[in-house]
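Treating backbone geometry as a discrete language has practical consequences that deserve illustration. No coordinates are needed to read the tokens, only the vocabulary itself. For completeness, the protein is quoted in full, as a sequence line and a line of structure tokens:
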Amino acid sequence: MSGLQLNLNKSKLFSINTSEDEVKEWAGAIDCSVGRFASDYLGLPLGANKNSIVLWDPVVQKFYKKLAGWKATTLSLTGRLVLLKANVDAVVSGDWKKSGIGGILRDDVGSVLGSFQEATGPGPPTLLELKAIKKGLTFFDSLRQRFKKRLIIESDSKLTVVWVKNIDRCPNVYVSIVKDVRLRALEGVIRWVARTTNIEADGLAKAGIG
């Protein structure tokens, strides 16, 4: 034996094609917890669809943060994941009778490629946030042949982003539009950002109300 010790407090027992009761019994016998897929190992996704862009986006972003600025800019385009980013937002009047959505599209060096703003009529805030995400995707589709890059949509509505990523948590009344968003976003990423980083999209949405 090498003398290395197993830290059971940090260990999990995973199983495939085994009953949950058996796994719990075995985990109890060695005094560790039960693990469930999908999980991660050494910071990498484990037991999930390896081709999912949503799954790998956090890993890609972590690498970008680790790289110094000069290293990130000197990587060749064949050696880096080239993405466009669209920030979207929705603004609703207090009585829910008026609303506007807006968004701004940038390339991977921050240059503005386009923007949109429009009135969207009455409705609850969460519905309008979903419409803003959907509009961001259709706006990108109109430019897809021009840029031929993948898209990141950023919204400051944490709840709607959760629904898009986990449709089982979405209320039935919004399932139809969430399914449409998910279908359009098959080759892109939708993620939450703080409101303070979404100021330009918020201004466009306010202008959209008219």
User: Anything to note?
Assistant: Strands lie at 12-13, 33-34, 39-41, 44-46, 83-92, 99-106, 112-119, 150-155, 189-192. Helices lie at 20-30, 53-66, 69-74, 125-147, 158-165, 175-184, 199-209. The chain has a mean pLDDT of 80. Residues 160 and 173 are 13 Å apart (CA to CA).
